[in-house]
Amino acid sequence: MNIHEYQGKTLLREFGVPVLEGVHCTSVEQALTAYDNLNSKIVAVKSQIHAGGRGKGTLYHPQTRQEVMQGGVKIAFSKDEVETYATNILGNVLVTIQTGDEGKIVKNLYVESGCDIAHEYYLALLVDRDNKSVLIMASTEGGMDIEHVAEHTPEKIHKVVIDVNAGLLGFQKRDLGNSLGLSGMALRSFAKTLSAMYEMFVSQDCAMVEINPLVRTSNDEIVALDAKISFDENAEFRHKNWAQLRDLSEEEDVEIRAKETGLSYVKLDGNIGCLVNGAGLAMATMDVIKLYGGEPANFLDVGGGADEEQVKTAFSMIMEDPNVKGILVNIFGGIMRCDIIARGVIAATEALSLKVPLVVRLAGTNVEQGKEILAASDLNIHPANDLAEGAQKIVSLIGGDE
Amino acid sequence: MMAIWIEEDAKVLVQGITGKQGMFHAGKMVEYGTQIVGGCTPGKGGQTVELEGKDFPVWNSMTEAITATDADATVIYVPPPYAAEAIMEAAEAFDTVKGEGVVICITEGIPTLDMVKAVAYVNNRPGIRLIGPNCPGIITPGETGGAKIGIMPGHIHAKGRIGIVSKSGTLTYEAVAQTMSINEGQSTCIGIGGDPVNGTGFIECLAAFENDPQTVAIVMIGEIGGNAEQEAAAFAAENVSKPIVGFVAGSTAPPGKRMGHAGAIISGGKGTAEEKFEAFKQAGIACANDPSEIGSVLLQALQDAGLR
Q1: Which residues in chain A have Cβ-Cβ distances shorter than 8 Å to B166?
Q2: Region A380-384: what's the mean pLDDT?
Q3: Which domains does chain B have, with CATH numbers?
Q4: CA A264 to each of CA A154, A228, A312: distance values in angstroms, whole numbers, following the listed order
């Protein structure tokens, strides 16, 4: 689960990480008041969306798609400039390298004081799968695309692996600071910042904290100038405050509803809907559709114990997508029995008066009963014996519409 | 030694045996023929649970349960907030009572930082092996019955000579069905789970299958996210002489989106299926483009190795 920069900075401030004064705004008027209150010669006017590359993004008018402004993060030297930038940002669509061509409508703005920057660094805390631990990554190459740095100058990325049962140790903070060339007051400020960030990472169940750039000011203070924070959704049960931090407008409505009903759904661009049990098999089903020349419309895992009602919900979610021209159901019954799935499929098909072609592949527990139930119905359901056959059938069935 | 880590007659405890999931699956395991010796639910010690018409004892702690039963393994069906602690309790109890044991955690949705702690804890106890979490478990089919420890449908398996290791549950079942389609059974099938931080990985499974006399060939199924598959491929190229058939799920997954499993995400352009398939091919692993092809690719690999 991602949060906005302005929310991340509030959290960082709570844990004692130095951040600049800033105000979250949702209107141009608020931005102008913020400028007056911040009392800073220069301010940054920053688009708040859940995607990186905001600074180098482009703003477009939501209806006409006419370009409004280059750059979703602007430095303003006057109140007039704040007004111009805020007007150009709010309500318009920001397209960045991470949003896709559709972009995202900007509804939130962060107006932040400026500071004198002596140097920009990169700092990130994340869970490292290789070491099965928390990893801190830092680089002197702040403000840049870190993947580019990692590829071209990997020696400029410094890493520290934390033993979670020992915590972040003093020498690790000093070593990392030294490798960034910090000393004296700046090194002490860095060490303190790092401790605060590590404490936040662990206590808040973060999945990733990325500060790019982390800056050293001309006064040798370390300040977090940006904040990209995400949480581990598995830990939501012990963080009641996340509900308020979640920006539902950043998530696909149908994906949220799927989660509420215990399904896992991801929308894709194709036209063949899929309904599968198990995440790995659901991915494989999409892959095989593509292999036989089709395009999957979604990833949908109904889980290991779906009942008739969930199968029905899953079907209605698939059919909400106007691109869907056919559906492939692929179930390997383990705990889930094929006869129950077959009944669920029939009930859903009838309830939704399904018009598109439907291919059903059943395997595993009670497969024979499942197949009999489908065959006995007078609905237009095409059976398949394995995944390849199922994919080929659905691709050829929708072929005429292409 | 026959099969890996879990022998056909392994004695197994169930943590969370009094819960809905635990009781249901414990029953299925008994039905399959797994030697369930009891369970553990704190606060319910002294009670019994009836499975398939037979009573099984419940203990308050894993130390008591292992001491009383000399269990070889435990399977965890404890809800996410308490699962990591259940893993650590089992690890400590096995280590103290007998110096070894296999801990299988089925639970899905455990906080990642809880797993970081639990894995470090288990790794401090070298005799303890953790499988999972968020996995179907491990099964060593027998001539009759066998040891099914987890949630997989037992009846699709048969004792044989193919080792299977996978990150995904239903895709493992698919692989099992594919081996059966060419009249091959399984030595041991392991679901290592789809979480970013887990216990046993591909490499340990490959090494164990290589050393297992019952296993003659291996099916390895990965998915997008991380680079465990690439590392396993590099390991296999150097250390595994037995034929391996590989598949990776998620060729069509969009970057930056979590595909059901917490660990199944392409981030920063890394962890794609293409990368993993390429690593498999480089390592001489025979790849199936489609799970329905696993059987035929495996048959070819067995023929090439003079095993059919």
Answers
A1: 280
A2: 92
A3: 1-134 (3.40.50.720), 158-308 (3.40.50.261)
A4: 36, 25, 14
